[in-house]
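ping. complex inputs:
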Amino acid sequence: EDKVVQSPLSLVVHEGDTVTLNCSYEVTNFRSLLWYKQEKKAPTFLFMLTSSGIEKKSGRLSSILDKKELFSILNITATQTGDSAVYLCAVGWGTDKLIFGTGTRLQVFP
Amino acid sequence: DSGVTQTPKHLITATGQRVTLRCSPRSGDLSVYWYQQSLDQGLQFLIQYYNGEERAKGNILERFSAQQFPDLHSELNLSSLELGDSALYFCASSPSGLAGGSRSYNEQFFGPGTRLTVL
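pong. complex structure:
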């Protein structure tokens, strides 16, 4: 059965800390891995990764995919309270389908 | 703002009732997806429509149904509601839907969601 597992489930840090979120997967017909940030409502798109070993960066956020070991990490450096959210990992398979993990809840305190 | 709209924002109803959730995809997107998000579960894929036709089914109950209209908006109908149906229902859209796909495989844009509370 296809599955996407995220860890940790929850993370509490102070502003300025660096965090690493993990996502491992077992999905047949893998096409891509996506990271989303969900605050109060709709998930918002962060990154899409399709190739192993190529880091994607956006400001303080970066992500990398390892297709051999079947995992991805999302790094957030110098965290801010605005980074508090649930971070969702999703694996794309087939033409358009996504399987989501249950998410990592990040809380950043001042 | 993703460009995907959903109405209503909140819905409170009693068990046994029926409700309709509405979604308008981003301009030009042909695929619409419906997801359910409960407190204790992640985003669960329910169903996908592409250009008016059902394309894929996920964990959708028989009491639930959906359709996509010629103007590409979609409706999710939930009937014989139970307490356990209380959840956030998200709609997402993407441009692609055909085998062989577009440049951006699998990227989906989410609407703000409809919170359904069944009392």
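Chain A has a mean pLDDT of 91.
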